[in-house]
Amino acid sequence: MSIDGPAAAGKGTIARALAARFGFAHLDTGLLYRAVGRRVLAGETAEMAAASLSPLDLDRDDLRTQEVAEAASRAAVLPTVRALLVDFQRSFARRTGGAVLDGRDIGTVICPDAEVKLFVTASAEVRAHRRWLELRAAGHEVTEASVLDDVRARDARDAGRKDAPMVAAGDAMVLDTSELGIDAAVAAAEAVVKERLGR
Ligand code: CDP
User: Which of 108, 118, 115, 120 lies closest to 197 in space, CA to CA?
Assistant: First the structure.
């Protein structure tokens, strides 16, 4: 199952809820790019970082900052970096018992044959507000205006890149969560999946 969409649209929360409800393994593919971005900030080239990612790189508590997200999105433009991360994502997707992957290009490039595809979106203002609340709760001192700027810049870079741009797959169900609380968004996604999977 694939869940794509822009920053802070609710992909992660929806993906985790669906994984729990349907018994699928879950991979947040943004973490791969964030881990690369973090190592670039620490002085490596993006290609070197992508070629040598380890589980330890993903299991860190310093990946969810604005700086790392920005570095991730810059690294994510590079075709070599994306290519280095394909096999890991595809083999995760083939797990027995099923898997849900969330990201930007899962339904279009990584798993074009996914059984169910969702594209989760919301207005930039709503997404920036949610992300601002999350960052503040995690102790980061940021203004809502700077988060909105960051979200807009990243959306533009992610949607505008040549290789694997962020776009809804033709056969994805688009879910706009601008006016949905998290419970309603999860319920809407669950309803779509139930109908497609027949369980
Ligand atoms: O949590 P948020 O939605 O803000 O970001 P994320 O999913 O952690 O992804 C961080 C960045 O990684 C994105 O802005 C994309 O540039 C990149 N990314 C990507 O290119 N392809 C993916 N499948 C996942 C993330």
Answer: 115
Judge whether 27 and 92 are in contact, CB under 8 Å. Answer: yes
Q: Between the CA of residue 62 and those of 74, 158, 185, what are the distances in Å?
A: 18, 22, 27
Going by their DSSP bridges, the two strands 99-103 and 117-121 should be labelled as: unpaired
Q: Is the CB of 177 under 6 A from ligand 1?
A: no
Whether 103 lines ligand 1, by a CB cut-off of 6 Å, is: yes
**Atom of ligand 1 lying closest to residue 110 CA:** 23
Each residue's pLDDT tens digit, 89-108: 999 999 999 999 999 999 99
Q: What are phi and psi of 29, to 5 degrees?
A: -70, -20
Structure tokens at 116: 């169910």
